[in-house]
Design goal:
By secondary structure, the protein is mainly beta.
Length: 142
């Protein structure tokens, strides 16, 4: 009975895309600075790394993409990741991106490949607020 329970636990972890059973050792959530910007402006995306002593394979690369519901994602950058999971990259918000919330998704991490259709898996990314373009009001004098 104990073996069957252990197999079910491992199967559940693999079903969410994690290929190891230590779920306490995932990358720290990424941050974006500034937290809001306009289309065409640059922002820095970074993470403090893994929350434990585990090491990533040498040569690990993450991809940063801009994602919006109902639209195809746009890859913004690739970034080498330190063995302890730290990374930092500057990306530009794609020109023409309208105002609202934009999800900067990081793929290539231990969170990837979630096959759970019940939305219980966690993604790896950060939300950014895209500001409207500056108003170009012109004063007309009589």
């Amino acid at each position: 009975m104990g073996l069957a329970t252990a197999l079910l636990i491992v199967a559940g972890v693999v079903a969410c895309g994690l290929t190891y059973t230590d779920r306490s050792c995932l990358p720290e959530l990424p941050e974006v600075h500034p937290t809001s910007a306009r289309a065409g402006e640059a922002v820095a995306v970074s993470s403090a790394g893994l929350g434990c002593d585990r090491r990533l394979p040498a040569g690990t690369i993450y991809r940063v993409s801009a994602e919006r519901a109902g639209a195809a994602g746009v890859e913004l950058a690739t970034v080498p990741v330190a063995r302890d999971g730290r990374f930092q990259v500057t990306v530009r918000i794609p020109p023409g991106t309208g105002p609202g919330r934009l999800y900067l998704e990081i793929s290539g991490s231990l969170y990837d490949d979630c096959k759970d259709t019940a939305s219980s898996c966690v993604g790896y990314g950060v939300l950014l607020t895209v500001l409207p373009p500056p108003s170009s009001s012109t004063t007309i004098r009589p």
